[in-house]
Request: fold
Amino acid sequence: MNRRSWWLTALGVLFTAVMLFPVYWMINVSLTKTSNMRKSPPNLIPVDATLSGYAVVIHQQLPYLGTSLLIGLGTVALTLVLAAPAGYSLAKLRPRGGGALSFVLLIAQMIPAIVMAMGFYTIYIKLGLLNTVWGLILADSTIAVPFGVLIFAAFMARIPDELLQAARIDGAGTFRTFASIVVPVSRNAIVTVSLFAFLWAWSDFLFANTLDGGGSLQPITLGIYAYIGNNNQQWNAIMATAVVASVPAAVLLVIAQRYVAAGVTAGAVKD
Amino acid sequence: MTTEQSKARSAARNGDGAVLAAPSRAQRARSRSRAQLAAWGFIAPVVVYLGLFYAYPLYRNVDLSIRSYTLASFITGDAPFAGFSNYVNVIESSTFAPALINTTIFVFASIAFQFAIGLALAVFFFRSFRLSGVLRALFLVPWLLPLLVSASTWSWMLDSDSGVVNSFLQAFGIGQIDWLTSPRWSLVAVLIANIWIGIPFNLVIMYSGLQSISAEVFEAAAIDGANGWQRFWRITFPLLRPVSAITLLLGFVYTLKVFDIIWIMTRGGPGTASTTLAIWSYQLGFGSLLPDFSSAAAVGNLLIIIAVIFSLVYIRARRRLELT
Reply:
């Protein structure tokens, strides 16, 4: 390494440190004692650290975390079941009107969530889906499904046609080809879509607050919101909850790095 | 990659013909319509889904906006037709002008800073140096965090008395700024948080845009004696124009929808100082004990119209760009 690139690294570290300072601050505050919270200037590093914030999380927020997990997994399942076949069709089966559908999926992502929330509210109030986990899973899936279809279509377009041709010559029908060739080969796309669908469902606040505001099972975003709304001064507990709520994002960062980067068909066709 | 694919495809097609001999036209038509049936079978669930969970809520929203709904109307199903009067009321409301101005400032300032910083960082990280991949990955963190988490963290950082930002500014002799509670600063405060969240997205897309520019172009420019600054403005930036355009459009659409950040940090306040159209729509529909769903839906639909107009302008501009 020459001297010049060493300086670039130093500069890069500095930029990253500035960018990530709020994340560090969240962790720092989560470890700060309530008595030190209003100290001026604040402690820049968690000297005199306490885990009491995290104790509060364990005592009060576990049900919220469980609900978020359930909603996230439900959203992932629904998104995959809907998006993977549609992506395959758009990429390889050339359906009539496929272009129009892709366009609609693009447009669909432009609709503000507040508009969707209002629409869902009027429907749910009639169907009795208000304040239910199922209603929230359905609503959250609308964030991920259009994205999922487009991602699957993009990934699956790169599957070599020889592979599908070979399956057809072996006598596999369209569904069989999809289930036993396309799905296994698309593992990376599945992981990518799942991770994002989970993360979005996990992070959703607007749908949760409008459609599940009075529910008995509420996600973690509402758990944090209730803390803030109560004019609660226990910022270490709020920030500890925020840290715990950020864990899926960290997991996604570590795993997706590996999966997204890997080529879709790597290892499937060796030639 | 693409040429290889099409080569493979035509090779496969030739092989196909040789194996199966020439099928009759009727046979071919039948197998084609069967293939269409299968193709549609695979997308049918999503089409039904879009109808039920996109089109129908949207239709309900339009219906809400042209009737006068109250909470009771949901139970009785009885809401008198109101035509465009909800829209007229919304536009004549004293909140409309500030909300529109705040939305415009919020959207354009967010995009300008996110894009400029994102592009600068993309160019920076594009130079190869040790740890550049790891650091670039770390830059994604703000984008992946739940918005509620980012918003509450920024709320506490920008707290008037105990926020770290104010105590940092104090070290430079700048007095206390009431970021979240003064009408002068609240829009700036939510802007700072939103720009922070949007930088990673711009960085990632612009970085992939840089990757698609062939290295030969840069080499040729370097041989011709262009310096770094000239190379950026004369070569990199023009070549990035298509990627920039789509990034800016996506940024526009996303920023127009922003709700969580502003709601958590300021609730649109104080007064209407940081109220955007999205926030106003929520306030009308869910923010009080006396919900006004019809006006809320009207504001929401105005938001959609703005998004669509900008997208059409974008598509037209792109077409003109392609023609020249």
Summary: Residues 260-271 of chain A have pLDDT under 50 and may be disordered.
